[in-house]
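Dear colleagues,

As part of the handover before I leave the project, I'm documenting each prediction I ran so the next person doesn't have to rerun anything. This entry is a single chain, and its sequence is reproduced below.
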Amino acid sequence: MQGLKRKLVYVSLYEVIGMTFSALGLALLSGTSPGSTGPLAVIITTIAVTWNFIYTSLFEHWESRQKSRTRTVKRRIAHAVGFQLTLIVFLIPLIAWWMNISLVQAFLLDLALIIFIPCYTFAFNWLFDRLFGLPASALPDSAAAA
């Protein structure tokens, strides 16, 4: 599976699972019910879906121009960490506003997710590639042209 179809399946699966973890994690960490953090998780997921699509497209564009297109552990870690760090820029202010807490409190609340999500992203990407095959950007030039 390649192209837009691959990206849509990837982002959809990734975010549905991520939204579930976010709603439950925020509720657990804040001492509230998933009913109060559920709408926030939907907003977070909407932001994350949009950013994930853009970020992954940019990453694959960069990857396709590299001398070695092999998806190494180092490259997978860079993708996972880069995505999470850039997503924080959008999410910490949103969480602070939604829950009426300071940016520091929002950061502390999100800290568990900040640690968990890159690990989840790494594992999800690895499993997704195993189930659906590598994208063209990670295939050798001869295989990508076929």
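The two ends are 13 Å apart (CA to CA). The mean pLDDT is 85.

All the best with the project,
I.
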